[in-house]
Design goal:
Length: about 300
Amino acid sequence: MTVDLRVNIAGVEFANPIMTASGCCGYGDELATIFPLSKLGALVTKSITQNPRLGHKPPRVAEATMSMLNAIGLANVGIDAFVTDKIPFLNKQKTKIIVNVAGWSIEDYTSVCARLNDIPRVDMVELNFSCPNVESGLEFSSDATQMERAVRAVKNVFSRPIVAKLSPNVTNIVDIAKGAEQGGADAVSLINSLIGTAIDIETWRPRLTNNTGGLTGPAVKPIALAMVNKVHNQCRLPIIGIGGIRTADDVVEFLLCGATAVQVGTALFVEPSAPVTIAKGLADYLKRKKISSVSQLVGKVVRH
Ligand code: DHB
């Protein structure tokens, strides 16, 4: 039996629902030495900002139980170097390219996205409104009206689909998703990392120079699944599910909860070829269940 792993989000067709999560494989060049990026549904880049950033001082990653903390501080090459140095490599890759964009003001987002609009190879932008590690980085992700305004502004300068990445560090994620929908977002991705910390008991200092960081990895998966399902039940936008995905079984859970596609992040640091194993495992699951297309799983969780 042949199974169809293709998924469509806002008119963009992905070869399979497995994407990389922003920040976990830079701009894809190192990952391409492990496996051909054509095996991915999409490559999602590290957040790009207007200016280059060195990010926070190390240590900026720390391990926690079944999880990881990071406070990178949006280190990236900036839009100019991204266009001149990274796009030529991405141009050659046979996968969809989603560029993640971060900023501090609406102008930051619109100026970067306007530049990306001129590069047809960029299939979508994903707006990082929710970096937990920069001051005042949370306004757009925790206020539905701000989210709506920011998405609408980007919509005016970027003509292809826009994904709003949502923070779990809010009172009600559905309100924020609805703000993104009102602003004209084509999809939402969730969840970004949860704010957490870890303390060195000898020095009494936090293990990260930023004091707190974003928590990711298998420990966050149940939280992410519940949030994906909640947004799926109350908002019409397609969902890209993110949070602790490590295996094909994890992906099936996200799809059943309402995600159309998923992103693999922290697992890449443990096993960089995880997306390939996961895509194969997903095809095997569909064959075993005699389901011809992966899209048939979306939102099919049976509630008690
Ligand atoms: C960073 C940004 C994020 O969106 C995140 O979830 C974790 C870390 C950062 O660059 O610090």
